[in-house]
Write a structure and sequence with these properties.
eight-stranded antiparallel beta sheet
Length: 203
């Protein structure tokens, strides 16, 4: 007559529980590492502001984080600060500018100010009047997926007013300039706002 060894059976069950627990823990670590890698590789990217064209929002050598997912399911909005790399252009570096004109709109610069569909644009940021209208001296009507961009340092910026930059298509946009991480941390959308806009934002 055989007798069950309950102690041995309990030990086996305990070993299996421990083994499955360790296995589950390893799987969770692998998943978390994979997700972290995916976020770093595809969702965000670090870059450096080059030049003075975005002062006083961003300055030369500022370190920023790009949100690459921002425009995956929606289009850029007016006044978004975007990062783009123009296909077919000679330079290969990232360019950072602010969205001013949206697809289908007509843009013109008159007496240093931006007009959208013949109405002057009220901007939430502190910018100077432009000395040079460039291509926008005449009305520019944007095609589908085309955006008109300007640097915040208006008289020291190469942007959509000039043929070497021109209008930007959505496929050239890398993402939204999201965070400034150096020299100090800040959300880029909160930088260089007019005093009245800051007050509204705090309410």
């Amino acid at each position: 007559m055989e007798y069950l060894d309950f102690d041995k059976a309990e030990q086996n069950r305990r070993r299996k529980r421990i083994l499955f627990g360790i296995l589950g823990w390893i799987i969770q670590i692998v998943i978390m590492v994979g997700l972290a890698f995916g976020v770093i590789e595809f969702a965000v990217e670090k870059t450096t502001m080059t030049g003075d064209s975005m002062e006083a929002t961003l300055f030369n050598e500022d370190k920023i984080i790009i949100s690459r997912f921002s425009y995956l399911f929606r289009n850029p909005k007016r006044f978004d600060v975007i990062v783009f790399k123009q296909s077919g252009k000679e330079h290969s570096y990232y360019n950072i500018k602010r969205v001013i004109g949206l697809p289908g709109e007509t843009i013109q610069i008159i007496d240093g100010s931006v007009y959208i569909n013949e109405t002057i644009l009220e901007e939430p940021i502190s910018v100077e009047l432009m000395n040079v209208s460039g291509l926008a001296q005449e009305p520019i009507t944007l095609e589908e997926n085309e955006y008109f961009v300007l640097g915040d340092h208006r008289n020291f910026s190469e942007d959509s007013r000039f043929a070497n930059v021109g209008t930007i298509v959505k496929d050239d946009i890398v993402g939204k300039a999201w965070l400034r991480i150096s020299p100090n941390f800040a959300f880029i959308s909160k930088l260089n706002l007019k005093p009245e806009e800051k007050d509204i934002d705090q309410e």
